[in-house]
Design a protein that fits this description.
With about 325 residues, the chain is an all-alpha fold. It is about 80% helix and about 0% strand. The protein has helices spanning about 5-20, 20-50, 60-100, 115-150, 160-180, 185-190, 195-200, 205-250, 250-265, 265-300.
Length: about 325
């Protein structure tokens, strides 16, 4: 039976992320747009509130009115950012799948970002899979609760063990189902249509292997997060030690440096841009890690088997 390699599928995320660093950074920038919208709305809101004296004790009614108006505007921008987030995830997920499955085709830019029928197929499949998975999970939880009430009179520790067992069964069933459903979006890209049937068929006989792939993906994501946390902590300790030493040894120089940054924030802007690029790559790689392995599985499972070599009629042996 045709199958796929878990290590090869996981490796596809690293091949894509490190092999296409510019595209991965661009994907991360697209994913960071909603956060930048919220940040861009929050900064003027707090500036207006501070200028109106909303944070001071005994604020007048005008400052309270300004506070309510600013908060309302911030909520509007926040809701807009939620819609933009859904769109950015759709565009980036489709671009990653397109990059893994087919490389560059006519109409694909260097970042594989575009708006077309592929995005529509993935959007419909993703919406249907998400709603279906939530409904299935709700039904499973309700069944578990009903069984739990039926087992309420069972003596301990069997009652607790029964509850733990039911929770484990529900979680396992959901993860097994998710492995099959996750192939539908990349299958939509592979076959250029809604991939409900094709994605389900490609995962036939691969349920447990897809479950293992999901576990390895979670483990790799945790390891990458742990490494990043250690790097950030080390950098923060080094920077904090240097800043603390400067502030303690020469407070006047420290205050003068801060005032200079406020008056001429060019260096802050430059530092923000420099830090934004690696942050964007990390954001893009996190999405690649959750998307590229399934696209690789679809690519492998959808390949036509190689034709068998003809056998010689005279000798019964395969020709050299």
């Amino acid at each position: 039976m045709k199958t796929f390699s878990i290590s090869d599928a996981i490796g596809e995320a690293f091949r894509t992320g490190f092999g296409r660093p510019v595209a991965t950074t661009a994907w991360g920038l697209v994913l960071l747009v909603p956060a930048l919208i919220v940040l861009g709305a929050a900064v003027p809101m707090f500036s207006e509130l501070s200028a109106a004296g909303a944070f001071s004790a005994g604020a007048d009614p005008e400052s309270l009115e300004a506070e309510l108006s600013s908060i309302w505007q911030f909520q509007v921008w926040t809701q807009l950012s939620n819609l933009v987030q859904l769109l950015s995830v759709l565009l980036v997920t489709t671009a990653i799948g397109r990059a893994v499955l087919s490389g560059r085709r006519r109409g694909d830019g260097a970042m594989f970002l575009r708006v077309g029928m592929d995005e529509l197929h993935v959007a419909v499949v993703g919406l249907a899979v998400g709603v279906g998975a939530v409904l299935a999970l709700i039904v499973a939880v309700l069944l578990a609760v009903g069984i739990g009430f039926a087992l309420w009179r069972v003596e301990e520790p069997w009652r607790t063990l029964s509850f733990i067992g039911m929770g484990a069964v529900v979680a396992l069933g959901f993860l097994l189902l998710w492995g099959r459903l996750a192939l539908m979006a990349p299958a939509s890209l592979r076959y250029r249509t809604f991939g409900f049937e094709s994605g389900w068929k490609l995962g036939r006989g691969q349920t447990w292997r897809l479950f293992g792939l999901l576990l390895v993906m979670i483990l790799v994501a945790l390891l990458v997060a742990a490494v990043l946390i250690v790097i950030v902590l080390i950098a923060a300790l080094i920077l904090g030690a240097g800043v603390g030493t400067l502030a303690m040894e020469d407070p006047e120089a420290w205050e003068a440096w801060l005032e200079g940054l406020v008056q001429q924030p060019v260096w802050l802007i430059v530092a923000g841009v420099v830090l934004l690029l690696p942050l964007a790559w990390l954001q893009g790689f996190s999405q690649v890690l959750m998307t590229a392995p399934y696209a690789r599985v679809v690519e492998v499972m959808a390949r036509e088997p190689a034709p068998a070599e003809p056998i010689s009629a005279d000798t019964g042996l395969e020709p050299l």
